[in-house]
Amino acid sequence: MSADARAPGARAPGVRDSDDASRAQRLGLGPVSAALERDLRQFVRRHGLSVWLDPAGHYTELVDHLAQLPSAPEPGHLDYEVRAFRGSYLALMHELANLTSGVHPPRLLVHLPGLNDRSIRTTPLYELYKAGKCYSKSLDTAVSEAAAGRVPPDDLAALCARADLSLAAADAWLSERVSGGVGGGLRATLENISASALIGDLLRGEGVATRLRDPGDAAALWAHLEAALGLRADWARSTGAGEAADADADPGAQVGAQADTVRAEDVAFAMASWAQAVEYVGDLRRPPVSPLLAGVSALPAAVRTACGELAEHLRQAHADFYRRTADETEDRLADEVAAARAEDLGRIDTFRFEEDKILEAAIAALRAREFDRASEYVQVRAGLRSPWVALDAGRRAAWQLVAAATALGQAIADAGAKLAANDHDAALAAYCERGARVDRLHRELEQARFKLLGPQVPRFDAVRACLDDLRAAWRAWADAWAEGFTVLCERDGFLPRAELQQRHLFDDVVRAHAQAGTTALFLVDALRYEMATALLAAIVNIDGTAATSVRLDARFAELPTVTEVGMNALAPVSARGRLTPKIANGTFQGFSAGEFQVKDPETRRRAMGARVGGSTCPLLSLSEVLARDARSLKHSVAQARLVVVHSLEIDQAGEHGTGLAAFEDALHTLRNAWQLLRDAGIKRFVFTADHGFLLLDSGAGSGGAAAAQAHGRKIDPKRRHVISSVAADHSGEVRAPLSALGYDGSELHAMFPRTCAPFDTGARARDFVHGGNSLQERVIPVLSVVHRSDAGGTTLRYRVEVTDRDKPLGDLGGVHRLRAGVRVAGQSALDFGAAGEIELALRAREPADVSAELVSVSGGARIEGGRLLAKVGEDFELHFRLSGNTEARALVELHHPGRSAELEPGGPARRFSVTPAVKQRPADAEPTSAAAASEAARAPAASWLAQLPAGVREVFAHIEAHGVCVENEASALLGGARKLRRFSAEFEKHAALAPFGVRIDTVGGIKRYVKEGTRT
Predict the structure, then answer these.
(1) Is the peptide bond before 287 cis (omega within 30 degrees of 0)?
(2) pTM
(3) pLDDT per residue over 948-962, tens digit each?
(4) CA-CA distance, 197 to 201, in Å (whole number)?
(5) What Rg value do the Cα atoms of the chain yield, rounded?
């Protein structure tokens, strides 16, 4: 028999703990009294001094019995003292004097019959009452709690309604009901297993499922389900579980009277569908409208809890069966579906229609810009806790997009519609504290849109409209902040105080670090401030120890915010705070620095090396760092005070239009380079940038071609600035003489759009632009990382263990599933520094030209900033896609992409299908006649259809001939609802034999089996 999946210490209705049963026997208590004493015992253990108010005096005989039992931590004894008021306050207070005089609260129960929380105030025991904890329970509640799950709910309700109800009568009644009845040995078995264990037996055909051929045992099972889950006869019959029963059977009859024998899978379906219905009603914020659900709300609380726990167990342990059952049950609740409103639904998506209604409401809230209301919906669904979201790639994508849009909307509202700043310092602080978060969420939303938005997303048009609305909201916010900063610059000048200028960064920050020890300076083209916040978080996550200090500051980039200005200004090229630029044809060529011109990476390295000294000043590209190991890097930097690392990845990806796909990878690459250089012995790092960028909509909408700003001839402006010899002011622009920007030797002027609009250059609009005066372009990060100790060479080794080898997870909606975990494999020396999380990446091992895309993860792992972080020792379930120019099936493996841990890659032995690129049919290919194609299609029919059982063979033949088979057609071909359920349970096994793919769609509540393509 399967083990009970219930958490330790939990108790299912209808499941008697053998220790409790033997304790009740030793104490001489009936079943209701025993349950009440168990509750009392736990209460006294928690609270010590406990005062039991018993206004009606129902429990006097029980207390007198308990008071006669010895108090000792032994079998047949009480582990707490019992005292009672029996007419004399003085006598009771005398008894309590010695028991309540200690320092620690005594384990003491004081029974006060005839008193309630008001009348006790006039007695001498009021001080005792205030000092202790009050215990109170009505008799009908005590009876319900003891009997729920052990007798039918209607019988229990009738007992509790009796005017002459007493504890002794309830004990006698429940004892008789529990000990009598049909089923003999099976009844005793059922009394001692949970509903989750029972349904496991039924689904696997084990244990209880093997004992249902005897009519008495079948009746005992139905009687048990009626008691434990409240499962009604009419509900069981409506599911087909009681089809063998008399069609005219009394709807109020007990379930056990339905049939002589039952099928295990039918009972499991009835149990599951009923549990789902009860859970749905319990989570509903209004009374149900379906007559099928009448009376569910009146079930005892313990029974409703048992149904909810069973539904949750099925979601976790039998997900496919849960979804099939829920879909069929939903079809029977059409009136509930029609009446459903999002505000009526709770936090559990028992049925598919609930999640759909909530998604619809979240989208509506987004369209209305009610972001807090949308967030309430997102918190549950986007976290993959809904079964309909977790395993449906399209729905998961929809919720991820809605969640990202909601977060952006809330951040815009929190940041404020306008820039509230009186000077450059305040503007910088406002952007770093509030504005950068908006831009990070905007970038992440655009990345998610690029990755996830497609026709497979439910409510595609509505979701896309929401994203367009958020684009417009972000653009309006960014334009308003840009205009506010422009006004500030017009009033106070474009240059902040010296401590915030890019031109002083090297001497103020880098030189100081280099004097203290070897320093790696990362010059990252277009590393926006918000990106540095993500990089900082990744570094802290990997090495967030007290021996590492991390500081993120910000400065203003020089104008215009282009590479040839910002990168060269990062070198020590200023003299008395002024710069001498070289300009040709309106384009900056670099800056003069003494006897030579700083204009490229090599001249920047020379200027920096000369300023800090040292035997060498290596210049490395980011790719060079990643291509070398720690030993080689250590040799290269051994005599250096400064190591310059030059990175173009972010800017190049943006300029080539691939930024949305590459930004996260670029940040990961920076982090990996930091790890390598740290392993090479460098303890000081500075990350900074030449400029930021604006991420605009390159279409015809906001920020696209239609929003471009004209400036004379289209050949005059760059995308975000103009250098002109004419001091002319234009509408929508702001002008600054280069001399006002701290440049010497030039009479030219720089002009910038006042907002985020690009200039109309006649070229195709781009989403990645820079050169202007917006805060997104001008605020650059200065991220300093200092390690006070060498990189810790941990001796721990890890391995990836695939945990679903014996029972592989199937694919869902084109998304592959894999269950795995990270384990400690061993260590070469004593090491107590096991990592809490290990970063993993998924790759195709064979063939190599297949790319893997992470979709989602659940369990002991999370995806953060595009990284898969797995907890050591915990299993997780990974959902992913594979794509490539191949039709071969691929082997995949999980590996560690960095060098911070030693991990042995691992993956399943099974292969996964690859989504191939669309191939065009060669123009000279010989066409295939329709007759030949038809003949070829029929050829294998005899072989594969013959392998299918009768009924199933007809369904697949129908799908092959017509392309689709709806559920009612399948039911007719198979021979009824019961056989349809079995077909659904074994669908994957049958579909694997077909020479074409078959998917399951649900449209308007109707399930369809749809033919997809031909397998080779």
Answers:
(1) no
(2) 0.73
(3) 888 888 888 888 877
(4) 6
(5) 37
